[in-house]
Amino acid sequence: MTIATDSERGRTLIARWRILTQRRLDHLVDLYQSGRWKLYHQEGEFLAMVQEARSALKAWEALAPVDPVQDKVAEVAAAQLADDLPGANPLANGVAAEHDLRKS
User: What residues does each domain of the chain span?
Assistant: First the structure.
């Protein structure tokens, strides 16, 4: 077992935020390409959201540039953290399947 230094933990945290920001931008691009954005947003509002997501991604990339080796670990760490949090999995806490928000 290796002990992570403060700088490694900090970089992992920043990388996780960068990955999250990239996913948000990817989602907005998907909405644009499919045309679904028109169902939820006005054009100006949507363009502002895309611009904000791009700016945020550039800021996170400046703090933690993309590193395929470390980023893979960060994604796994984020998934493990989510699994370890109490209440992260509503089905594991006795909530009925009809309350699973992933189903529509």
Answer: 10-85
